[in-house]
Amino acid sequence: MKWITVAMTLALVTSTAGAQTQPEVTVEEIDGWMTELSNWGRWGQEDQLGAVNLITSQKRRQAAALVREVFSVYLARDREKEKAADNPSSYEHVMFRVDRDGSGSAMDSDKVSYHGLAHAHLDSLAHVFYQGKMYNGFSQEEVTEKGAGKLDIHNLKDGIFTRGILIDIPRLKGVPYLDPGTAIYSEDLEAWERQAGIRVASGDVVFVRTGRWARRAALGPWDAFQNSAGLHVSVARWLKERDVAMLGGDAANDVRPSGLEESAFPLHRLALVAMGVHWFDNADLEALSETAARLNRWDFVLGI
After folding, report:
1. What is the CATH number of the domain that holds 265?
2. Residue 161, SS3 per DSSP
3. How far apart are CA 34 and CA 29, in angstroms?
4. Model confidence pLDDT, tens digit, residues 149-167
């Protein structure tokens, strides 16, 4: 049995086959789910880790005990330095030399706006607000120009080590990538589980591939902020039932458009604010998909 160790280096901060009729979800229903699916207080009133608490010592031991072969698969995108439809705020990198008669040095400077649809990053629980609150009831006023007084990404400074699972929806549907706007439902996630012979369990980190980067490589960039494949908001209940520790994808995870003009990224809100689920955006899952397909293994050890 082979296992993959996935080394994450992320910034800390098609076909309609099998398509289903999108369930009608109202803003009022989502407001109700904010309470129904909430993890506020589950790990104490001062908790700032959220669902990462589900990655217990036992969970880590279970992951470690399954390792047979170790190699790394990189999930972060290379720096996108060119402005494009999906990258209006490109990565700025300047390299410069300091010469002192041949014994100088080289240094560099970087500037990036992580949030958007170009750069791989990890959303902290201070990223999204709802009715003036963040996860566990902390006030949005904790966030100032100086940083986040609560729910800062540095709460994860000790790292993450657990089982990761890749859910590869294009492979499920037999296509290289999903068309922009394609919604992924919990039924799709469960169909993948049956096909792959795995089951998402408490404390797992789940990555859902739409093939966004494969489509970009084939057809060029597009405004993925306005139109991209992703998870339908109704998947929130599935995430809570399975006790997913963290969630990731190759775009913004929410399907765009969401079908809810009043709530552009409703699953972001439910995951980050109600459930305390940290969120990877824009991960490059192409190499992981190819490696997992070659080994016919869709779960791996995730180390961050």
Report:
1. 3.50.30
2. strand
3. 9
4. 999 999 999 999 999 999 9
Report the C-alpha gap between 25 and 274 in whole angstroms: 17
Q: How far apart are the C-alpha atoms of 216 and 179, rounded to whole Å? A: 11
Q: Please give the helix or strand (H or E) that residue 111 lies within, else none.
A: strand 105-111
62 belongs to a structural domain: yes
**pLDDT at residue 95 above 90?**
no
Token pair listed for 142: 């904790």
Is 92 within 8 Å of 80 (Cβ atoms)?
Answer: no
What pTM value is reported for the model? 0.86
How many residues are given for the chain? 304
Whether 266 shows a pLDDT value over 80: the answer reads yes
pLDDT for residue 114 is more than 70: no
Given a contact cutoff of 8 angstroms between Cβ atoms, the answer to whether 203 and 245 are in contact is yes
Q: Which domain holds residue 235?
A: 5-14+27-78+116-303
State the pLDDT confidence band at 91, using cuts at 50, 70 and 90: low
Q: Is 278 a domain residue?
A: yes
The answer to the question of residue 97 being in a domain is: no
Tell me the C-alpha distance between 288 and 213, whole Å: 12
